[in-house]
Amino acid sequence: MKHSPSLWNRLSACAFFSNSRLFRAFLILPLLASAQAPKPPAPPKGVQSQVQSSTGVATFSASATLVLEQVNVKDKDGKAIEGLKKEDFTVLEDNKPQTIKFFDYEKLDDIVAAPTLQTERTAEPVALAKLTRTQIAPEPAGTVQYKDRRLLAIYFDMSSMQILDQLHALDAATSFVKKQMSPSDLIAIMQYNGTGVEVLQDFTGDKDKLLNIIATLVAGEADNTGESTADASASDTGAAFGQDDSEFNIFNTDRQLAAVETAIKMLGTLSEKKSLIYFASGMQLNGIDNQAQLRATENSAVRAGVSIWPIDARGLVASSPLGDATRGSQGGAGMYTGAAALAVQSNFAKSQDTLYTLAADTGGKAMLDYNDLGQGIVNAEKAIMSYYIIGYYTTNDALDGKFRKVKITLNNGMQASLDYRQGYYANKVYGKFTQADKERQLEDALMMGDPITELTMALEVNYFRQNMAESFVPIMVKIPGSELALAKKGGAEHTLIDFIGEIKDDQGTTIQNIRDYRDIKLTEATAAEWMKRPIAYDTGYNLLPGDYKIKVLARDSETGRIGTYMGSFHVPNLDREDQKVPISSVVLSSQRAQMSTAIAADKGDKAAATQAANPLVQDGQKLIPSVTRVFHNASDMYVYLQALEFELDEEGHYKVDANKKKVFATTARPLVAYVTFYKGSVKAMETPPVKVVDGLDPHSHMLPIKLSFALNKLKPGEYNCQVTVLDPTSRKAAFWQAPVMMIP
Known about the structure:
six-stranded mixed sheet, alpha+beta
């Protein structure tokens, strides 16, 4: 096929998807066409139709999956090629030819300096009254709603930005609308205020309306920021915990990511390319956090054809080593050892790393350390230029959830560079699964890189030294009992919660597998009881010291809903600890259960071995870890940990043998332990010191430390819980800290 020079020389930039190699998929839209509905592209042959003749009127319906893809076509000079037809393209899905049923060219004008607002306008926009919620209007099936328009959604994460950052973000958006918005641009405005995503304005090119909407956003009104780090960078400000105290929504990051995913799904109803300009003051993920929500958000964006363009509203930051005047002093030795300064820089870098990941994995580009925040919007604007939309009804109607590879080429020997997404995950239908299908679904879900977050999950991993080589690692999973409401509503008398998972080492080798279930009755009485308490499951494994990754899935067998937990954990080698008292992980609990009624564990002989090795099982009772660390201040708290003891010489140093290995103690040396609760820099409560001398295990040489006390002196709110273990003889100590939430 020949093209005129003018056709080949037209300049148009392509969307920036070349660096997004991790998660590539298509926007998949299920379409249902009927005789009364607007006529979409014709479904392929072989799609079943149904005829209802009982009313005397024949009604035909067809169901098919339309796969939409946006394709940039460039010549060797990087210039966009126009004038192509659907006959010029060949589409293969898993090497099988597909028939193009939907084809459109989105021609976007080159970006030039946009005219300012009307000359007669001299005053700033007047702030409108508080607006009601709106939504992103979906487009009719088989049509392109915004022909030849560039779609930019500006999203303000008010929950993550300080007031000054919010002002900078709002000013940047206002400046862009006034001075740089081109005639091809349509802008939607969204915000997350810590409770939910609000669409304040659907896509529009009306500058006056957009400016008035931005003017309604009040800086500081939804400022839910709060310092959640418990490391040396934490300042002693005494600030109260400002997040939702719901047990399974304590930590802000998952809710921020879930909110972004919600916004993406709203934009996914449109077939055009979309850019989500995400204003935030960073987003920090810790190494042990649940990674499932991050991946689910990224994959939702890739499916929906949404590229995320994060903008760090903090701009270029030149902070002092211990923070600026807006932060309180950290206090402690960390100020003098450099630990506090290092933690400040590390936390800042982590918060930007998450923004970078969101951009790189969805085809966007993060703007970090740059004061002109409006440039980030300009970058997103320039990335969407002229492109083709190609749609086809897949010939593979198997709803198996598997990845399908797609290849698009040009016919007639045409030479050009095609930029498109190279695959998608198929949908699944759970109601028609056989038992074998359900088992395969769990295995596929475990292997696929796309986590599923339909069920809320929380997980806690602990470690206790078992012998000279291994540690016993108990794993506790909790799911809110309210998640069973849907199964009960469907009339189920019982349901199974299936668990599947794996533990991998730092080389990616699977070390342990998890496969179990929990059978739950759903009578009227038990259903009401489950609404008030979580579903719990535990198991345990012996592991060598090292770094591990864990992935666990839980599925409600009645509804088919799945939840995924992904995280990492470290099992230390306590034998090598010289500077402080070697201690295990610390378990906080408010519940002890009889083994006859305790939570589910593995079945058969393995169950007996697991419970025998579990130090949380003592005297026929099991200590149930809190996992979410939410406690009623009218209850008691139980604290359990272990300390490793070595023999000491006359000078109080650890003894070593002829091989220069430390000698383990055969009799317990007295230790002192107590628990302190801090509200910022203020000590809210401290338990009396307890002298521990009994119970040294002859195999592990670990001394168990058990503490229990009432929480009625603590008011509702967030506290930093510190467990202190002192060895007066060796003059060593160990400190463990974690945030806890008190609720009335």
